[in-house]
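Quick illustration, no need to memorize.
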Amino acid sequence: LLVQGLTAWHGLVVLGNAKAGSSVLVHSAAGGVGCAALQICETLGCTSVGVVGSDKKIGFLKERYPSCTPLVRSKERKYKKQLDEVGKEYDVVLESLGGRYLTAALDHVEPMGRLVHFGATHAYGGTGVDGLLKWLKLIPNYLARPLLDPGKMVPKNQAVFGFNLIWLTEREDELTVELNDMLTRGGLNKRPPAVGRTFPFSELPAAVDHLRSGDSVGKVVVTVD
């Protein structure tokens, strides 16, 4: 809750300036940060589109975050066309995939809008990939990483932020304020975080494999007796 909740709050509100009426695009919407972000969007009164990697996660989003519009992302090269077909522009994009997904999302940021990048799970190897295959995927994805042109962003007053919560860990006063805001203004004190699956400690390797598979939703919990 602390790490993922604060990442979502700082990314959406402190950097992204999300507020009532803002349109928000959330990548990896069924994950820990994504779920926290959608809860914050509901509480603030934002309209949200939650991007997930498979049809299996649509039901989860619809049940837990009924105001969110789910979107199953297409292959990387077709994602821009997919967003074009959706036909929306966004005040805030909470971005965690990297690569062409980032570039496509940036093309759909409103004037005065902001894209906040806090990870690159797809671009730098993806989930559920091991060994040599991971390295073979990593090289072309690294070479195809986004090249951002500030000149194109200036006329629209757009901003792109890279963010990692670790840089705030020593700013205790600031984090205390953000933690209180996250819980109260962001609504993360309304209900427990979503738990997708629970494993006993004896099955810890299976829990890690499930988390890395890309099939998990919400939190993966390991219980210790």
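The mean pLDDT is 90.
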